[in-house]
Design a protein that fits this description.
By secondary structure, this protein is mainly alpha-helical. It has five helices and two strands; from the N terminus they run αααβαβα. It has helices at residues 4-12, 30-40, 53-66, 82-90, 100-107, and strands at 73-75, 94-96. It has a two-stranded parallel ribbon.
């Protein structure tokens, strides 16, 4: 089993995640983080999102621990964001793709075709 810290290190180097701004969640929580980002950057031109990498790693680690011989397949249509898909790929997920665009998106992250259904 890979530790949560090790999983986060793996994710940080994943295509789609690498190069993105990553901030530790403050003790005050997510609401305060978002409030501080908005108050410090009044000139937002585009929306932003928050991806809690801990929320991504914990279920995958539990899956690997509980069902070591079963590979999970993530349905790309649920959230096709490259950073999220890159995190899932780094954690060993397979991908359920329903369109050519979804397949191309996953392949562009360096995912092997044998991990796509």
């Amino acid at each position: 089993m890979v530790s949560n810290t090790k999983s986060l290190q793996i994710i940080m180097g994943a295509p789609g995640v690498k190069g993105k701004k990553v901030t530790a969640l403050p003790k005050d929580g997510l609401t305060d983080l978002i409030g501080s980002v908005v108050s410090e950057n009044h000139d937002f031109k585009e929306p932003f999102y928050v991806l809690d990498l801990g929320v991504v790693t914990s279920p995958m680690e539990k899956w690997t621990r509980s069902l070591p011989t079963v590979r999970p397949f993530y349905a790309v249509k649920c959230n096709p964001d490259p950073a999220f898909l890159g995190a899932m790929a780094a954690l060993g997920s397979g991908f359920d793709c329903a369109s050519q665009a979804e397949i191309e998106s996953v392949l562009s992250l360096g995912v092997s075709p044998d991990r796509i259904e």
